[in-house]
Design brief:
Chains A, B: Belongs to the FPP/GGPP synthase family. The structure is a homodimer. Chain A is an all-alpha fold. The first copy, chain A, is built from 15 helices and 2 strands.
C-alpha cells in the first residue's frame, strides 16, 4: 500500500536521525547514561512517527528537501514522546503499557521517567534552533514559536489538563471533548504541518491550508483512536481495549455513539483532503492518502 | 545595601513581567484555569529572580536596555520554577515545603504539578522566540540554543539525574559532586549570563567572560547553599535545616568540611569578580557586588 510505504520511508528518516545524530548529540554533550537509557527506551521503541512525516511532507510540498528540515521534524517526535511518558505516569493516566511494552516509569521508575520527559522536551527546542542557518533564522524562529504554542499551556499540556479535569466528570459536552482533543492531540499535529510550511517560507495562504489540513487530520485521527479503543484489536493498538471507558474518559464514541463518530471522522478526513487538493506531486498524494488511511482503519 | 536594592529592582521588573504580560499571555491563549493556578502559585510565590537579573545585567553591561531583553530574561525564571516544581515531587526530592509554603504538588496534587512544570518549560521557549525582532533573529536563536543546552539532558536535567544517582551512594568524590552541581545549578546560571551577552551581540571574548562569571558565580552560590543547609536559619532559607544530610545527599560540606567549603566559595566569587573587572557602570558594579554578596552569607 503506497501510503503506508511512504509513511514508513518518512519514519525511517526520522528513526535514523533519532538513533544516530540525536543519540550522538546526547552522548557528546555529556548526558548521564542513566538519563540516556529511559530517553532512548521511549524514543526508539517504535511508533508511526506521524508528526515528523507531516512536517517533512509539508516542507516537501513547498519545495524544501527533507534533509534541511529533518532535525526540526524529528523534534516533534521528541515532544510527542515526552508527552506520552508524562501522560503514562501514575499521577496521570497510570498506564503500565505503551506500544505493547512496559511504559517508561514501569521500566525505569518514576524519577527517571519524569526527567527523561523533561529532557526530551528541552532538547526538542535545542534541535529546532539548530535548523538555522540551513533554513533562514526568521523562519526557524516563527516555526519554533508555533511549536512552543502548540505544545504549551494553551495547547498539548492544557489539553492534558482538561482531559484530567473531564475524566470521571459528568455533564461534559461533545463540544468540550472536541475542544480538549484539539488541544491535547490536534495542536501538535497541526503545528507539525504548519511548521513544515513555514520552514519552506511559503505564502501565508499556504500556511493557512497547512493549518486546516493539520487540524482536520488531527481530529480525524483522534476520533478514530477513540473508536479503536472501543472496537480495536489489542495487539494492533498496543494497549488494552476499553481502557478509556474503564478510566471514565469522555470520548467521541461515549458521547455521540459509534456511527456518528465514524461520520465525524470521515468528514474531517474530507476537509483535510480538500485542503491539499490543489497540489501535485508525491508529497501531496501522501497527504491526501494519509487522511483517507487514518479513517479507513475505522470505517 | 546597594546590591540588594539593585537585585530587588531587577526582581521587580521580572515579577511585573511574569504577573502582567505573561499572565495575560496565558489567559489570552486559552490556558485552562486549572493549569494557570499551579503555574502562577509557583511562579509568583517569591524568589530572588537571580537568573533574570543576571541576564538583564549582562545585556545592560553590553549596552542593551532591559526592555528589549526582559521576556528572554524572565524565561529563565520560568525554567527555574519548573525545575523546582519537578524536583519537589514525591518521586524526586519529595519536598513538602518551598519558600516557606507548601510545594506545588502539596497545594495542587501531583498531576497538576507535573503539568504546570511541563507548561512553564514549554512557554519559556515560546517567550524566548518572541524576543525577535526587537533583538536580531540570529542572536535570539543562538541564545535560545544556549539556554536549551543548559536546561537539557547534559545540563540541568542531567544534573538532577546525577543528584538522584549520587544520593545515598557511597564513594562519590568531591569532583563528581562539583561536576553534578555545575550541571544541576551552574548551567542555567551560566546560561543566563551568556544569553544576556549574546542578545547584546557583544564580541566572542565578552561572551566567554560572561560564561566564566556565570559558572564561578553558580559554583559560589551552590557551595554557599550547601553550607546554609548545614548552618543556616530555617526561616531565611525557607526549608528545614539539615535536609541534605537527612536525605543522604553528598554535598561540598559533607565531603570537604565547612572550612574548606567556605574557602572554595570565596575563590569562586573572586574569579567571578575578576571576570567583570574591566567594566565600568552600574551593571558591572552590580555583578561584582553580587558575587561578594553570595558568599558573604556564609563567611
Amino acid at each position: 500500500m503506497w501510503v503506508k510505504d511512504r509513511l514508513a520511508a518518512y519514519a525511517a528518516l526520522t528513526a535514523d536521525y533519532l538513533r544516530d545524530r540525536f543519540g550522538r548529540r546526547l552522548r557528546e554533550a555529556g548526558t548521564p547514561e542513566t538519563l540516556i537509557a529511559p530517553m532512548e527506551y521511549s524514543l526508539l521503541g517504535g511508533g508511526k512517527r506521524l508528526r515528523p512525516a507531516l512536517c517533512l511532507a509539508f516542507a516537501e510540498l513547498h519545495g524544501l528537501p527533507p534533509g534541511k528540515v529533518l532535525p526540526f521534524a524529528a523534534a516533534f517526535e521528541l515532544i510527542h514522546t515526552y508527552s506520552l511518558i508524562h501522560d503514562d505516569l501514575p499521577a496521570m493516566d497510570d498506564d503500565d503499557l505503551r506500544r505493547g511494552r512496559p511504559s517508561c516509569h514501569k521500566a525505569y521508575g518514576e524519577a527517571q521517567a519524569i526527567l527523561a520527559g523533561d529532557a526530551l522536551l528541552t532538547e526538542a527546542f535545542g534541535v529546532m534552533a539548530e535548523t538555522a542557518p540551513a533554513v533562514p533564522e526568521k523562519a526557524v524562529l516563527t516555526a519554533l514559536a508555533e511549536a512552543a504554542f502548540a505544545a504549551g499551556s494553551a495547547g498539548m499540556v492544557g489539553g492534558q489538563m482538561l482531559d484530567m479535569d473531564y475524566t470521571g466528570a459528568s455533564g461534559v459536552s461533545l463540544a468540550q471533548v472536541a475542544a480538549m482533543q484539539a488541544k491535547k492531540t490536534g495542536a501538535l499535529i497541526r503545528a507539525a504541518c504548519v511548521c513544515g510550511a513555514i520552514l519552506a517560507e511559503c505564502a501565508p495562504q499556504d500556511v493557512d491550508r497547512a493549518a486546516l489540513y493539520g487540524q482536520s487530520l488531527g481530529a480525524a485521527f483522534q476520533i478514530a483512536d477513540d473508536i479503536l479503543d472501543v472496537v480495536g484489536d489489542e495487539t494492533a493498538i498496543g494497549k488494552p481495549v476499553g481502557s478509556d471507558q474503564a478510566m471514565g474518559k469522555n470520548t467521541f464514541p461515549s458521547l455521540a455513539g459509534l456511527p456518528q463518530s465514524r461520520e465525524m471522522a470521515l468528514a474531517e478526513a474530507d476537509t483535510a483532503v480538500r485542503a491539499v487538493a490543489d497540489h501535485d506531486g508525491e508529497a501531496a498524494r501522501f497527504l491526501r492518502e494519509l487522511a483517507r488511511y487514518v479513517v479507513d482503519r475505522v470505517s
